Amino acid sequence: QSIAAAVEARPKDTHLRLQYARMLVQMKEFKVATGQFLILQKEMPNDENILLSLGLLFIETAEYHQGKQYLQELLNKGYKNQQAHYYLGRIQQSQGEYMAAIANYERVHTGEYLLDARIRSASLIADSGQTEEALTRLESLSDKNQAEPDQIKLYLAKGQVLNAARRNDEAYRLYNSALQRSPENTDLLYARALTAEKLDLLEVTESDLKMVIMHEPENASALNALGYTLADRTERLTEARDYILKAAKLLPDDPAILDSLGWVYYRLGQHKDAIKWLSKAFNALQDAEIAAHLGEVLWVDGQTDKARSIWRKGERLEGNKTVLENTMRRLKEQQSIK
């Protein structure tokens, strides 16, 4: 309050106002801080740090259009700011401007954002179907003197690219190699567990996820993954439900966890509860795989018109369309859907 009063008393003191603005950022008072930086920007329109601060503050408050404008203005003024390129790339990636995002990520040459920028660039290149190019770029980032956390990031990125290309065997071998170096790293264990499930190596999936949970008892993603795997691939349904309920207690509004909760209740024969949780999941996240699950429960419950409606929506959505297509095909074989 005292510094705020001093700023009000000395409105032309830019040094004092800058101190106040930075203090507000530390206190996470982002909206108020933005107001102070806007005042400073009028006084110093070409200042690199003020333009950067405004760009980052607008990102913090989810005002991406304004954030993008200030970061672009900073770069247009000729500043070679690595952080600006990185965050501009992040905004462009979130808005589907993938080529522009890649261009900005590739302009990050040094500093703490270099590795993440290049990993993101490679991931977008892989998404465009250029798997080998993405893998080559990721391999070029490897360095025998690299710190272990950075090595792990690269292993995870390569594994993600391989899995996306359905080269699950290669991803699994990669994670095995990584875990020989870092045997208790929970991110690697989690990644290998999900890959092992795709290869029907359910013992590995269960073992790895339980290892993650042993190290991180409140890891909601691992609890949910283990619970869903048990619900979907085994008859250990009570055990599966208990894991998913633990995850739901930690993240009660997470759509993936709500989907798992609905699915385990369906497998337990409790259709009313299944529809309740799957509907909540679908309302929270319009996703093809959730649509497949909700549609199946509605169909089996006799609500066939609602099931068809959900499936039609699912066909227009992002997500795992394979699950949706397989679900409709399987039920069609049992009884004509259309």
From TrEMBL:
The lineage of its organism: unclassified sequences, metagenomes, ecological metagenomes. It holds the Pfam family TPR_8. It comes from hydrothermal vent metagenome. SMART domains: TPR. GO terms for biological process: negative regulation of DNA-templated transcription. This is FIG140336: TPR domain protein.
